[in-house]
Amino acid sequence: MNYLTVPLKNSHRKSDFSCEKQLLDKYIREQASQDIKRKLSACFVIEGDENLIKGYYTLSGSSVKRELIPKHVRKKMPPAYQDLPVTLLGRLAIDKTCKGQGLGELILIDALSRSYDNSKVIGSIAVVVDPLDHDAVAFYKKYGFISLPDSNKMFLAMKTIESLLNN
Amino acid sequence: MQFWLPKKDQEIFFKAIMNPDEPNKKLKAAAERYKKTKKGNELSNSSTKK
Question: Which three-class secondary structure state does DSSP give residue A130?
């Protein structure tokens, strides 16, 4: 397994990253390293020259509670599973100097590849995202993510990702 | 971390999990580009190592 991204390191120039979305800039500059230390999430970056960060994303484990599953679907699921595991693609951003190069879709596929590879070791039935704004919704929609309109989340089934990466 | 999903979202989510869609054209094209870019990176890395 190899990827276009590497894990975020202290040597990466986090303070130089800017995607022009304050929340995402602030996260990589101030929060990402702490979250990694606390094992809350993993952060992967596309490296540029001289340790610049061209883009980043974060992954963490999450779950959907069993009682939320509609009865007719629950019948088909083994009762031992109280919660159903999913992978949270928490944040994804591209530096403003790299926009228009198609890096967004490359880093998305990288995130899906890692999520799929991880699901072979620790089960996960879907990749879930929580889009920040309309631009992010449009981005994920373009690649087939399914909207959950009442919670503003979107997701892609791991089976869909498996089919993508194995064909 | 756990998700709470409203009722309508639960139906959409589990219907898609039980009957997953095939990846769409854009996603397939992006995956192809990813493979090519990765291959290009591997080639340039191996030539740098030599």
Answer: coil
Tokens of A37: 């230390």
Question: Is A4 within 8 Å of B41 when comparing Cβ atoms?
Answer: yes
Span A75-108, pLDDT tens digits: 777 777 778 899 999 999 999 999 999 999 999 9
Contact A93, A21 (CB under 8 A): yes
Q: What is the ipTM of this complex?
A: 0.89
Flag whether residue A148 sits within 8 Å of chain B, measured between CB atoms.
yes
B30 within 8 A of B24, measured Cβ to Cβ: no
Q: End-to-end distance of chain B based on CA atoms, in angstroms?
A: 46
Quick one: closest CA in B to A155, which residue?
Answer: B13
pTM tops 0.80 = yes
Q: Produce one character per residue of A54-92: b if its CB has 16 or more CB atoms within 10 Å, e if not.
A: bbbbbbebbbbeeebbeeeeeeeeeeeeeebbbbbbbbb
Give the one of B5, B27, B28 whose C-beta lies nearest to A64's C-beta. Answer: B5
pLDDT confidence bin for A121, thresholds 50/70/90: very high
